[in-house]
């Protein structure tokens, strides 16, 4: 039995839990239950896969009770950890979300740059409460649709969707959005949509013009300081920081920044660039998984 369990764990890392369960079931076997892979996940997941993309599905994500679009949850199917009493339970970048939310207070003003469907923005919105405010910037059309639907379904008026890409220039720039494909091994590929660069696979992306802005420009008339910001912009992290220098120097916000491959330098991530930008501004930076937590001294 120990050998069998070890073999299953190895196969799971290679082909994924759902594929294992389907193979076993097609051969008349039942996969062993475990805390990570309860057998009841499979039929519930299949129902989710067949649901209309915009159908709002009750779930528990990062310990929050939410209603989210079925199309968004399909992208997170590899983050599905359990199913209890007919409820889907997900953990999506929870360490980064927890780190930032622990530093927010009721009534605070916070930002989500590259919000996608808004799961971390929702956590921030719950944290700052009805007297606070969270701006969620998202230029990708499909993600923006999910974000707006999630805000409405979960009754979060303090969470405001902004249709724009945040960078270091103001105007209009090309943006490349990846389509969702159930057969794509990278099920979350739409979340890698970004400003058009040499890294874009144009055979899988739809490119169009979007409004570009900087945080310094967008927040010029703000009436309270930015307490914290999450930045997830697929390699354009330093571009966002350059366009936010005044906000960073004035408000000293906590920053949680996803680190990606640099669109300008092949094979190099943006970690060193981010550190080099923030260090002279008095920030200490530490990695949490693939994200960098940045605290003002």
Give structural notes.
This protein is of the alpha/beta class. It has two domains: 2-90, no CATH class; 94-296, Vaccinia Virus protein VP39 (Rossmann fold, 3-Layer(aba) Sandwich). The protein has helices at residues 2-15, 17-26, 41-50, 70-75, 94-101, 119-128, 141-153, 215-218, 237-242, 245-251, 271-278, and strands at residues 56-61, 64-69, 80-84, 87-90, 109-113, 133-137, 159-162, 165-166, 171-178, 194-195, 205-213, 226-231, 254-258, 283-288, 291-296. 40% of the residues are buried.
Largest sheet data? 7 strands, mixed
Question: Which band does the percent of strand residues land in?
Answer: 25-35%
Task: Please give the order of strands in the largest beta sheet.
Answer: 7-6-5-12-13-15-14
Stretches where pLDDT is under 50 for at least 5 consecutive residues are 1-41
Total DSSP E strands: 15
Outline type = globular
* Number of discrete helical segments: 11
Termini separation comes to 53 Å
Total number of domains: 2
- CATH topological fold name of the largest domain: Rossmann fold
CATH class of the largest domain: Alpha Beta
Portion in helices: 25-40%
Structural class: alpha/beta
User: What oligomeric state best describes the polypeptide chains here?
Assistant: single chain
**What string, H for helix and E for strand, traces the elements in order?**
HHHEEHEEHEHEHEEEEEHEHHEHEE
């Amino acid at each position: 039995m120990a050998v069998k369990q070890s073999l299953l764990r190895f196969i799971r890392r290679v082909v994924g839990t759902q594929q294992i369960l389907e193979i076993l079931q097609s051969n008349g076997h039942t996969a062993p239950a475990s805390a990570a892979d309860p057998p009841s996940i499979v039929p519930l997941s299949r129902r989710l896969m067949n649901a209309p993309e915009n159908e709002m599905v009750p779930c528990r994500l990062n310990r929050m009770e939410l209603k989210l679009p079925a199309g968004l949850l399909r992208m997170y199917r590899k983050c599905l950890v359990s199913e209890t009493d007919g409820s889907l339970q997900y953990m999506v970048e929870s360490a980064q979300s927890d780190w930032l939310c622990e530093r927010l207070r009721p009534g605070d003003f916070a930002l989500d740059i590259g919000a996608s469907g808004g799961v971390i923005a929702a956590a921030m919105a719950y944290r700052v409460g009805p007297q606070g405010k969270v701006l969620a910037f998202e230029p990708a059309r499909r993600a923006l649709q999910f974000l707006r639907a999630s805000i409405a379904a979960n009754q979060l008026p303090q969470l405001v969707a902004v249709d724009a890409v945040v960078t270091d220039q103001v105007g209009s720039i090309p943006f490349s959005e990846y389509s969702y494909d159930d057969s794509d091994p990278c099920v979350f590929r739409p979340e890698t949509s970004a400003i058009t660069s040499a890294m874009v696979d144009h055979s899988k992306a739809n490119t169009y013009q979007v409004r570009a802005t900087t945080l310094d420009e967008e927040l010029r008339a703000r009436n309270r300081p930015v307490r914290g910001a999450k930045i997830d912009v697929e390699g354009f992290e330093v571009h966002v920081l350059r366009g936010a220098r005044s906000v960073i120097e004035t408000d000293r916000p906590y920053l949680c920044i996803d680190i990606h491959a640099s669109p300008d330098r092949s094979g190099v991530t943006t970690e060193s660039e981010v550190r080099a930008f923030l260090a002279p501004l008095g920030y200490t930076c530490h990695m949490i998984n693939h994200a960098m937590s940045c605290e003002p001294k």
